[in-house]
Amino acid sequence: MMKHTVTPHPDKLKQNLKQRLARIEGQVRGLQRMVETDTYCDDILNQIASVQAALTGVSRKLLTQHMHSCVKHRLNAGDDSVLDELDTTIERLLKR
Fold first, then answer.
1. CB count, 10 Å around CB of 83?
2. Which of 15, 46, 71, 83 is 20 to 30 Å from the Cα of 4, by its Cα?
3. CA separation (Å) from 92 to 35, 52, 56, 85, 86?
4. CA angle 12, 13, 18 (to 5 degrees)
């Protein structure tokens, strides 16, 4: 596992991500109810696809912010190892 550092996120981004994640949390709770109430499988699968798409949206937004702030800052400081880290992160996101 990579080292973890604190990254201050702009308030606007933080609020946007929190709202998106709260919506996703609600969708996941809805999925649980769908399973408990024996909802038609195709309907559950469609809801799962919606949750996955929503998580992908959060990932894209955060990745963009990461490249424009953290990665840029580390490159400007002469830390080229951030490119390997970024490559690994992108590979992980593309495996989905």
1. 12
2. 15
3. 29, 15, 12, 11, 10
4. 100
Could you please state the CATH topology (level 3) that the domain comprising 20-94 is classified under: Methane Monooxygenase Hydroxylase; Chain G, domain 1 (1.20.58)
pLDDT of residue 4: 57
Q: What is the pLDDT of residue 1?
A: 45
Instruction: Using CA atoms of 10, 13, 15, 19 in order, give the dihedral in degrees to the nearest 10.
Output: -160
Question: What digits encode the pLDDT tens for the residues 9-61?
Answer: 889 999 999 999 999 999 999 999 999 999 999 999 999 999 999 999 999 99
Tokens of 36: 């408990």
Output the six-digit token pair for 8.
Answer: 């201050």
